[in-house]
Amino acid sequence: MKKIMSFMIAVILTLTVSVTAFAAEGLATPDSADSELQIKKDANEYFYGGKQELGNIKITLYGALSDGSLVLNVDRYDAGSLTVSYTHAVGDYYYSYTDGQEAYIYKDHTFYFIEDAYNSGLINDDTLKELAECSKKYLENPIDIDYYFVFMPKIGERGLDIYLEEEIKYDANEYFYGGKQQLGNIKITLYGTLSDGSLVLNVDRYDAGSLTVSYTHAVGDYYYSYTDGQEAYIYKDHTFYFIEDAYNSGLINDDTLKELAECSKKYLENPIDIDYYFVFMPKTDEPTSQPD
Predict the structure, then answer these.
(1) CA-only gyration radius of the chain, Å
(2) Cα 14 to Cα 254: distance, rounded to the nearest angstrom
(3) Helix 125-140 × helix 2-16 angle, to 10°
(4) Burial tier of 229 (Cβ tally within 10 Å: 0-12, 13-18, 19+)
(5) How many CA atoms lie less than 13 Å away from 282 in the CB half-sphere?
(6) What is the DSSP string of 123-178?
(7) Quick one: DSSP state of residue 239?
(8) DSSP label at 185?
(9) SS3 at position 213
(10) Are 180 and 186 in contact (CB under 8 A)?
(11) Cβ-Cβ contacts under 8 Å for 231 (sequence gap 6 or more)
(12) Model confidence over 186-216: pLDDT tens digits?
């Protein structure tokens, strides 16, 4: 959990660095001040049964959806201390926030927590995509840097769940560097997943080779080709295994090699990054150091 929270904070800092916040007592929207007053009145009724002073309720707008609904925070007088963080899985996305910074969808004078709105069918996958766009846009230019809205796809650009990717980076840092490397210098590329749940991946390290030297190894009835810095590893139980070593030690068998060849074929048909390739093929085929 600590690693997940650290990653969430890192995401926030990355997205908000060099951004100059500006004071915004009112709602940062073309709507009139009456709109903010109405939202405060609705919030007072919804959260307090009409018994709170409106001056104790602050509204921060995170964005607007295509149907006119607003995505906003209601910073209440009795809100949390911002010391407890949460991450929820909502469809194919992660939503992270701290106490008092929950985002609500405001529609027809009512406030809906995002997860509840999705589970109840009020919003759908298209709405989640809009929410992710709202989050990205808000974090690039926040109304208040103390208020953040982090809503992002579960799967990152390298084909991995973003929190799993961060976990792998921690493990890679320990395995390859003894915990002394910056995680930002470690890039993970997923080549595929085996039937036992193990991952086939590349750990592109800060000190990797120059990609000028190519190698081809015979592994069982297969050839495995790669260049410096693009070695594929089997990642299992927080440990990295070079394919040839894993096979020679008995950790994987001929059935696994067949799976690896299928992973290679599938990846090369639709690579995440054309600069990263995984070539693992039967010896009956002509070995090559890179795909066509």
Answers:
(1) 24
(2) 44
(3) 60
(4) middle
(5) 7
(6) S-HHHHHHHHHHHHHHHHS-S-TT---EEEESB-TTSSBHHHHHHHHHHHHHHHHT
(7) E
(8) G
(9) coil
(10) no
(11) 202, 203, 242
(12) 889 899 999 999 999 999 865 555 556 788 9
Calpha distance 39→78 (Å, rounded): 17
Helix 162-177, helix 2-16: angle, nearest 10: 100
CB of 36 within 8 A of CB of 3? no
Residue type present at position 93: Y
Domain parsing of the chain, residue ranges: 2-153, 181-282
Amino acid of residue 172: A
Q: Is the Cβ–Cβ distance between 16 and 142 less than 8 Å?
A: yes
Report residue 137 as tokens. Answer: 């846009």
Beta bridge partners of 93: 90, 153
Q: Measure the CA–CA gap between 283 and 90, rounded to whole angstroms.
A: 45
Is pLDDT of 148 > 90?
no
**pLDDT tens by residue, 118-130:** 999 999 999 999 9
pTM (predicted TM-score): 0.63
Residue with tokens 């759908």: 124
DSSP-assigned beta bridge partners for residue 282: 222
User: CA distances (Å), 181 to each of 13, 134, 161, 175, 202, in order?
Assistant: 19, 33, 22, 11, 17
Nearby residues of 207 by Cβ (< 8 Å), 6 or more positions away: none
State the amino acid at position 112 in one-letter form: Y
List the structure tokens of 29: 């929207």
**Backbone phi, psi, residue 64, to 5°:** -130, 140
Q: Would you state the pLDDT for residue 78?
A: 55
- Copy the structure tokens of residue 199: 């991952």
